[in-house]
Amino acid sequence: MAKRLIRMLGTAALGLLIAATMPAWSRADTGTVRVEFTKGGFIIGVGGGRGVLTLRGHNYPFRVSGMSFGATIGGSTNQLVGKALNLRSPADFAGSYSAIGAGGALAGGAAGVQLQNNSNGVLLQLSGIKLGVELSASVSGVQIVME
């Protein structure tokens, strides 16, 4: 009898926890992102580009700029597509993102990156093609501004 009561209370507590967090899940959406980013450098890399966030059937253009520090040499153009997770509104997309990564290209190759905006909780998961000659292992910071 006591085990059954404990199990029922545990199930009820779990149900309340799920119900309490469910509205937060339902408010957050996933958008799609297309971006073209060109960068170059030697030790310190800089770059910029443009892209479009698609959320709830609407397109929101943006500009992106960034800097990396580490073992960077060469230059490349990245054409990336992917997802923007944890969006409540298009305004959440703008801000500063950070990433640690490595990559390379000799004429052409694959690119992939995951960026996180700590202040808004947005996570970008992007992949695509990289054109140019570049080798890098660096810490990166990216700034996104809505147009």
Task: Walk me through the structure.
The chain has 1 helix and 4 strands; from the N terminus they run αββββ. The model is unreliable at 8-26 (pLDDT under 50). The protein is an alpha+beta fold. It has one helix at 2-27, and strands at residues 29-55, 58-87, 95-117, 122-146. The protein is globular. A hairpin with a 2-residue loop joins strand 1 (29-55) and strand 2 (58-87). The termini are far apart. The protein has one domain (29-146): Beta Barrel (Lipocalin), CATH 2.40.128.
| Biggest pleated-sheet summary | 4 strands, antiparallel
Shape: globular
The overall number of domains is: 1
Unreliable runs, pLDDT <50, ≥5 residues?
8-26
SS field, number of helical segments = 1
Looking across the biggest beta sheet, what order are the strands in? 1-2-4-3
Kindly report how far apart the N and C termini lie: 63 Å
Write down the Rg. Answer: 20 Å
SSE arrangement, N to C: HEEEE
Tell me the total number of β-strands: 4
Top CATH class: Mainly Beta
Structural class: alpha+beta
- Provide the residue-averaged pLDDT: 78
CATH architecture: Beta Barrel
- In CATH, the topology is named Lipocalin
Q: Summarize the amount of helix as a percent range.
A: 10-25%
Relative strand content: over 45%
